[in-house]
Amino acid sequence: MNRIRKFIEEAGWPRVLIAVFLLILFIVSPFVGVPVDAAFSDTLVRFGMNGVLVLAMVPMVQSGCGLNFGLPLGIIAGLLGAVTSVELEAKAIPGVFTAMAIATPIAVVLGWGYGLLLNKVKGEEMMIATYVGFSSVAFMCIMWLVLPYSSSNMVWGYAGEGLRTTVSVEEFWQKAISDIGAFQIGEAFYFPTGMFLFFLLLCGLMWLFMRTRTGTAMTTVGSNPEYARASGVNINRMRTLSVIISTWLGALGIIVYEQSFGFIQLYMGPFMMAFPAVAALLIGGASVKKASIVNVIVGTFLFQGILTMTPSVINSMLQTDMSEVIRIIVSNGMILYALTRVTKVRS
């Protein structure tokens, strides 16, 4: 009993209750006609798709810049890399890494400018970041129409210019990473081994980086800026570096997402993508000043598990097709809950 109480205290009641609710959904699913293997496979795929985007939150939280509501800036860098890769007709693994290679310098430049801006508004980073994310998406709605891409796989057919709302990567690098070492059990269970290995690789690199001298200095800036300044740490430089890393991880994250999803979503596609990532991190146990790899993994699995299972189970129970409505209610409900935790931590 003491061990159970200690585990609950360490994990936190919110995560325990969410995990129990998710477990109940998995138990109930076969009784309402939802195959457990297919449901669990979908949860794992969504976990792998979104894991890197949630991981992108960690550097900025650790450096004291708060939750990265400006994640769409990194996503835009990844989208530019992805559409350029399609324009060059790069395929399979080389195609994915071409997209990442092109996205990297763009993310570094955007992250550097974003970091300089956040250094000017210390204390209000999350509010300014939200405006940065929204305005960058709106600006790119114009740019997607005027950028000089000409591939017939992407431009509007009737106009011959301007990119489509969604661009398929099926002929280029769909599941190029996911299918590395992937295996299938039965007809429904599919495990994207490559996508998980890539996510774990980035988690491992982030874990190692945060234990280097630079990573320790970055954490010190976030937890005790006065001590960091007294120790000779350049606070603005550490904050800017954390923003660059976060923006770069956002660029890689959207490319991983696209290769699994099969489509590049342009225009308003990235508009709200920061909020599920923020919610997943907070549900995993992070705060606005401290986040860990464990918070990323636990939070992403719980958030995506609930988001995957709830619509399927409720639809089958009610015998209706309300999956989109239920998905919106559940996702926004979890986001709202997670954001109330921000207020609780800051008060």
UniProtKB/TrEMBL annotation:
One annotated GO molecular function: transmembrane transporter activity
Keyword Transmembrane: yes
Keyword Transmembrane: yes
Regions that span the bilayer: 12-32, 44-61, 68-86, 92-116, 128-147, 189-209, 238-257, 263-286, 293-313, 325-343
Cellular location(s): Cell membrane
Keywords recorded for this protein, A-Z: Cell membrane, Membrane, Transmembrane, Transmembrane helix
InterPro entries per UniProt: ABC_transp_permease (IPR001851)
Family annotation (Pfam families): BPD_transp_2
Membrane topology: Multi-pass membrane protein
Entry GO terms, CC: plasma membrane
Main location: membrane
PANTHER family: ABC TRANSPORTER PERMEASE PROTEIN YPHD-RELATED-RELATED, SUGAR ABC TRANSPORTER PERMEASE PROTEIN
Name this polypeptide is given: ABC transporter permease
